[in-house]
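Journal club prep — side note

Before the paper discussion, L.F. wants everyone to see what a predicted structure for a comparable chain looks like in token form. Sequence:
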Amino acid sequence: MADPLVAGCGHEPVSLREVRELSELSAISGKYVIGRMLRQWRIAAGRTQPQVAAGLHVSAQAIHLYEAGRRTASPQMLQRWCEKLDVPLWKRRKLAALIAAGLDQKAPDASPPHLDALDRARIESLNVPAWYLATPTCDILHANQAAETLFPWAGAAPATSERPTNMIEQFVTDPRAAATIANWVDIIGPLICRFRVYSPGVVPMGRIAEIVEACSDNPAFGQLWRSDLDDHQMQRSELLITSIHGTTRWNLSHHCAAGRSHELLLLTPMTPSVGACMDRR
């Protein structure tokens, strides 16, 4: 059953000007944005403020002020914070852009992450759906056979394609996504929010505009793009797939090593029937 947001929503489409203003707003409100990111990273790592404070040898009150955007953390403090929480490379790049107040936005990296033969062999060895995604754009670098079988609309583009298949675009523009995923908004909302927050200064503005333009044909996209999700909404992981046989529950998880600029997106059934094991890089 399609989500009602997809069936009809009168929200204004996202304009190119609105996309370009993201970089300016990030630079203006950098301290607040950094604080919110620090909070989200801590929560995602399952740490409390006192635990992070102990690891950084500061008070819990100081952690609270950093996360609230009421105190500016030094670059050295932010580096230690990232190391303690094992923050992945693509998130550190956004942090660097904010610290530089947008100065490094002149030449963001346009080259896609490299996957070697071992990366591909690892993901193909899984018996559950899995994708390698470039972050934070969610460009699909590779999808294993299980992923393409479950979601034939979310496979990687051929090597000869001019642009990669994008997971957000496919979720928003392919009607099979909303028809298959019962909690479509719960899943695509965090991906769009992450893309909107982390892309400016890290992803070429032309690529951001391409994805937004492709998605804007769906009237639901404008509302989702402008939505600020809370920590609980960003951490949602249950995905509900509907079929003629009923509804199945899956756990959606993201895995990204600190030194890599792509992530593994993994779907595992929320039943004891199937498991997956992988040495994640």
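L.F.'s comment for the group: Strands lie at 130-134, 139-143, 238-243, 246-255, 262-269. Keep this in mind when we get to the figures.
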